[in-house]
Amino acid sequence: MLIDLTAEFFAAAAAVDPLEAYRRYYQTHKPILSAYWHNYILDPDSQQAEEIMLRTVTASRRDLHQLLDQVDVATLAAETYERCAQTYGIERPTDICLMVGVGGANAGELVVGGRGIAFICLEHFTGKPNAETYGLGLSPDLLPIWVAHGLAHTVRYTSRLSRSAISRIVFEAGGNYNCWDVASSAALRELMINEGLSVAASRIIAPGFDSHEYYGYGSQQYRRMRQLEAFLKRAVAPELSQTGIGYRLRYLTGGVPQSSRVVGGRVLPERSGYYLGHRMVEDHVVEFGLQTALVMEAEAFATTTTTGAADIEAQPA
Q: Contacts from 260-267 at CB under 8 Å and sequence distance 24+?
């Protein structure tokens, strides 16, 4: 199901009191927006949140209006959903939410009341960086990659067939996804497999892009990952079974200080876990097919025999 919140956001921004209008908009769509804020921004009831809301509804949106005039993003998202539904075998209620975010994430995944949601924050896909909205300036052509990425996560979290640790954590939380609870409870292996599978899924659903774009890297960062691959595999091997938010920050989060990314006396590139995770799963995706791989337990990927997880396991620390 496609949920498009952009028109309601623009109506709030055009109101006489845009901040109060945003609060009403937030309350109307609280299940989705509350989960978005708590997982990707901060507590929406905090003082900082009000400042962010005000900045968000008063920022210039000329670039976003131009995007929506030139690109039928709703049709693009809906068509990508249909490809994903068939390829992934989506069997649970799942939504795509198009929205205007507050600059904290270009896309992501949620589970609310057992329902998977892949959201896209359109301010990041205007093709022009925007310091006022924190828009990244990504090309709108990349939207299918991020829709496919987020929907692959929702399958792993909500499918009745899923044997992932994250699906258990979500179930025990009443069918709600909290990224910080997952980060503190699931082993690093699970977190990296989770991202690696979504990278693999987006490559299948939206082929033809440069390799670095599937990871959310710049081209230079991708080349650096490839150069450091042997070191990265050795660095991560002894940490794969560990749990704790620090591992998510070290391997899967952008904007983390270099001091938090030091392993073996060297600084890991930001979000190196996306690259490593994909390397860990790619053989299984080929051997068993994406639909099966998406719901496999993370431990199964340790048995890969060629270029993936077994390479990582076999390297001495």
A: 263/235, 263/236, 263/239, 264/231, 264/234, 264/235, 266/231, 266/235
Residues 16 and 160 in one domain: yes
Q: Are residues 211 and 292 in the same domain?
A: yes
CA distance 49 to 190: 31
Longest dimension (CA), the chain: 63
**How far is the C-alpha of 182 from the C-alpha of 103, rounded, in Å?**
23
Q: Are residues 290 and 305 in the same domain?
A: yes
Q: Which domain holds residue 130?
A: 2-172
Q: Both tokens of residue 167? A: 């699906």
Neighbours of 122 (CB within 10 A): 26
**Quick one: 128 and 206 in the same domain?**
no
Give 139-165 pLDDT, tens digit per residue.
999 999 999 999 999 999 999 999 999
